[in-house]
């Protein structure tokens, strides 16, 4: 296959991206998206297996051999009212592709096209289209539905666009790439009463305020200084008037860490601090966990393979090593727990930030993204 043939196909790929952008759907609801993309790949003759995590599917290009590679794209959108003014803007008010998953999906379609027109490799390429990356952990659901039992992979890779990184530049690091995240709802139960008679009450506001402060000591006193962690109390709900002591206070907390042991410690210490601090005021604490995503852990060999493919294909400047992990999180981490691989950023250029109403995926990446994935697969099977 010549580069010229792929260039001739590019306008169609841009059109596919724009059509995906017009039909944003939230996690586990990506029915139109899934039907549209699976239909294209089936028409091209790929083997499509649906029914993973409601809307997820795998398209396989089997060129024999024993080894297999998995390439993953996410498909879900976000509840944001689009303000790009683009001709291909969302047709669904209040919902938009503000994280570029339309672009990730289109890049994977482009990679499938390139590999399909390239007879020169021996192996199995599994194109994994995943729902619900943003909040619900679609990757974990696909794995629970037997993804890697039915489609064993020797390595898995994923790309995420990155505003602020030069267009078409790749970036990654071996080891921790993105943080783990867990969330907790902490309810502090006291005994309310008249604001003038605190002695007759157990004030949950004071107890909860003290918990907020004590939780920050987990970072300064429990996390080793060489490691990273974040404790954010993003919401503190209590009371209704200045002269009433309420019965309870509710805190919404997120915990992030780039090391699995630190993650485990933060969760454990949060429980201890919450209960002990509450008890010291005569109050009671209850912690309800929403277990989140693990640390996105890049395999060093897979990361080096991807970096060398980038350098050899696009020049040495095209790969920018990432020196520190990002404190955001990513559910591709679940796949990397099962199969070695790497997660890479691909520069979206000087665009609006992810998860904002003016963000749009950079169509310029529809050439480079598939070219990279194509070269990666060929190198992997070489
Ligand atoms: Zn996102
Ligand atoms: Zn995203």
Account of the 3D structure:
- The chain has 382 residues and is of the alpha/beta class.
- It has two domains: 262 residues, Zn peptidases (Aminopeptidase, 3-Layer(aba) Sandwich), CATH 3.40.630.10; 110 residues, Alpha-Beta Plaits (2-Layer Sandwich).
- Helices cover 36% and strands 27% of the residues.
- The protein contains ten helices and 16 strands.
- The strands form four sheets. It has an eight-stranded mixed sheet, sandwiched between helices.
- A hairpin with a 3-residue loop joins β1 and β2.
- α6 runs antiparallel to α7.
- The longest helix has 21 residues.
- The protein is elongated.
- The two termini are 17 Å apart.
- The structure holds zinc ion (2 copies).
């Amino acid at each position: 296959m010549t580069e010229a043939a792929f260039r001739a196909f590019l306008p169609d790929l841009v059109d596919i991206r724009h059509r995906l952008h017009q039909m944003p759907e939230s996690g586990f609801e990506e029915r139109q998206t899934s039907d549209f993309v699976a239909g294209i790949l089936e028409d091209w003759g790929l083997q499509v297996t649906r029914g993973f995590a409601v809307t997820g599917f795998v398209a396989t290009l089997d060129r024999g051999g024993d080894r297999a590679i998995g390439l993953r794209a996410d498909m879900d959108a976000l509840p944001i009212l689009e303000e790009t003014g683009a001709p291909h803007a969302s047709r669904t008010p209040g919902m938009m592709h503000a994280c570029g998953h339309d672009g990730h999906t289109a890049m994977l379609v482009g990679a499938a096209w390139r590999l399909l027109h390239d007879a020169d490799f021996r192996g199995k390429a599994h194109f994994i289209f995943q729902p619900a990356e943003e909040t619900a952990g679609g990757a974990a659901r696909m794995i629970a539905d037997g993804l890697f039992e039915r489609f064993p992979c020797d390595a898995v890779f994923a790309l995420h666009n990155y505003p602020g990184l030069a267009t078409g530049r790749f970036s990654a690091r071996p080891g921790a790439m993105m943080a783990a995240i867990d969330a907790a709802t902490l309810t502090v139960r006291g005994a309310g009463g008249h604001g003038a008679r605190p002695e007759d009450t157990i004030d949950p506001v004071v107890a909860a305020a003290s918990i907020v402060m004590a939780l920050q000591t987990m970072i300064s006193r429990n996390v080793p200084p060489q490691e990273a962690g974040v404790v954010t109390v993003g919401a503190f709900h209590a009371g209704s008037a200045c002269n009433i002591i309420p019965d309870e206070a509710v805190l919404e907390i997120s915990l992030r860490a780039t090391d699995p042991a630190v993650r485990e410690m933060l969760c454990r210490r949060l429980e201890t601090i919450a209960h002990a601090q509450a008890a010291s005021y005569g109050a009671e604490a209850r912690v309800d966990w929403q277990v989140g995503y693990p640390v996105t852990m890049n395999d060093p060999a897979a990361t080096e393979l991807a970096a060398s493919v980038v350098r050899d294909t696009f020049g040495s400047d095209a790969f920018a090593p990432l020196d520190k992990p990002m404190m955001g999180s990513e559910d591709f981490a679940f796949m990397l727990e099962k199969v070695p691989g790497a997660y890479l950023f691909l520069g979206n250029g000087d665009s609006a930030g992810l998860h904002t109403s003016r963000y749009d995926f950079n169509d310029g990446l529809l050439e480079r993204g598939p070219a990279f994935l194509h070269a990666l697969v060929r190198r992997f099977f070489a």
